[in-house]
Amino acid sequence: MNIHEYQAKEIFRKYGVPTPRGGVAFSGPEARKVAEELGGNLWVVKAQIHAGGRGKAGGVKLARTLDEVEKIAEEMLGMTLVTHQTGPEGKVVKKVYVEEGADIKAEYYLGMVLDRALEMPVMMASTEGGMEIEEVAEKTPEKIVKVAIDPTIGFQPFHARKLAFGLGLGKDEQKEFIKFAQALYNVYMDNDAEMIEINPLIKTGEGKFLALDAKMGFDDNALYRHPDIADMRDLDEEEPTEIEAKKYGLSYIKLDGNVGCMVNGAGLAMATMDIIKHEGGEPANFLDVGGGANPDTVAKGFEIILSDPNVKSIFVNIFGGIVRCDRIANGILQATEKVEVNVPVIVRLDGTNAEEAAEILRNANIKNIIPATDLKDGAQKAVKAAKGEL
Amino acid sequence: MSILVNKDTKVIVQGFTGKEGTFHSEQCMAYGTQIVGGVTPNKGGMTHLGKPVFNTVEEAVKATGATVSMIFVPPAFVSDAVMEAADAGIELAVIITEGAPVRDMMYAKHYATKKGMKTIGPNCPGIITAEECKIGIMPGHIFKKGNVGLISKSGTLTYEASNQVVKEDLGITTAVGIGGDPIIGLSYKELLPMFEEDPETEAIVMIGEIGGDLEIQAAKLIKEKITKPVIAFIAGQTAPKGKRMGHAGAIISGSKGTAAEKMAALKEAGAYVVESPADIGVTVAKALKERKK
After folding, report:
1. pTM, 2 dp
2. Which of B138, B243, B254 has the CB atom closest to A321's CB atom?
3. Which band of pLDDT confidence, cut at 50, 70 and 90, is reported for residue A68?
4. Which residue among A127, A295, B193, B215 is least enclosed by CB atoms within 10 Å?
5. The sheet that has A60-63: what strands, in order across it?
6. Contacting residues for A142 by C-beta, under 8 A, at least 6 apart
7. In this predicted model, which residue has the larger pLDDT, B5 or A298?
8. Which residue in B171, B235, B182, B238 sits closest to B206, CA to CA?
């Protein structure tokens, strides 16, 4: 789960990670009020969406008067921001963050993420603040310093020193930086974060470090022990169909093709998308109905797939293990009674009691339901059906 | 022969008396697995499915001589269960539970490694040595005995692959579902050499997916050390970037962890890389025929 910049900064402050002062606003006048309370004569108005690259897309703007704060906020709210991370459809701005202006002497990058190969968190720093870290890693990898932190010893000063030297920081700055990095490690570990990115991290004229931006993602499996963070979930940032699917224990991701898929198991679901492509079609979605494919989940699956008007055929690909295929076949038939399915449904059931299942489907004799003998046959039929050739 | 487990392996179950633990323990016993007891705190002294229940893993190991533990406890208690098993001298923990926090697994795996305990999973179907020993939740009957080793991140894709292999009149030595979480126990780099050394295994199927770089590490190892044919399929060739595809670890971050990258590395290492998941079985048959020429 990801959260907004203003929420991440709230968490940062709790742990003593310094950030500029600021407040969230949902309207122009509210933004003005936040700026007024902050005082000063320079503010930054920042669109709050879950995507990077906001600056280039016009989602981060400077204001020198309160009138300007209000005007910018009003323009930004309701606007659709398209950045390299939002996809071409962009994201609608529903709130802005108004922050005091900062005295920027230098910009850096500081981030934390799990290194899956080392099985420990790594902290990464770079002098190329403000740049996409991916791009830095590709073009000038020598400009990124990394330390892996063994969680059984925790974050030690030597970890921070290695990063500080890598950034070329002087002796006095190091002290400040070590404090900052230690606090950031605590944020990461205490909250079961999956990723933290501060880009840029700035050094002010006074030699202080401030998190000018903040991005955080969390391990969904650990949210049960962080109810305060779970409450930060912004459903506006997620696909409504994906949320709906999750309620029923289904894992759904919409794609751009026209062959709908319903599969049990994540790996087989991905493989089903792959074989549709391999046979000349385009998958419309990823859908894992989980181990217990029963009439209710299958019916919900049909409903969700069919909410996408592009879908021209559906490939149901189930490998029955402990759940027997004959039961699943009956489940599919019951599901078609609950939901009107008006496109061809190609059903491939393999595994335990596959033959009985095939017979159940044949005997039901529903014109939209077309049995397939194996994975390949199913994929080919589904692709043909989507093209209107079946 | 086989790897890791066989008909003589003694297994205890942590989370033995729960609903999942009970159902799958019964299935494993019906398959022939020697389940010698279970652990459920505060239920020590009970008999469940005809086997003794213990309060601690230590007691269970002492009384039964078990070397393997199958873990079914709820996600919040997984790391505790794994560390308890490691502490009690268990040699292999098979963690079936789905949804364990990554931070917990990080600590648990560190401790297991320190204690010399191997782990499989979490969030996996388990391990099966065909017609001898099933420790997990897979449908046992689709794994006919044969000469093909199988390593897979995905459950149902493991069944699919085994089914295809069996349709070619071949069979399986041992199949290991390693799981698709960000931190997992045994993976390709440990299991490939075990299959290489197993005299009965003549070919190895490896099923990977997007995310992480375990398959890239495997490719290096295959090139340097594996002489038996490796047939590889990577799921997620059509997966979009930045989306988590069901498994917690199945995500392309930036441009890292794509199927294309992994397939290229494996091809370069000399593996038979299968593009369509329907071609796994036929490619195994082809590889074995070529090898025998």
Report:
1. 0.92
2. B138
3. very high
4. B193
5. A22-25, A96-100, A43-47, A60-63
6. none
7. B5
8. B235
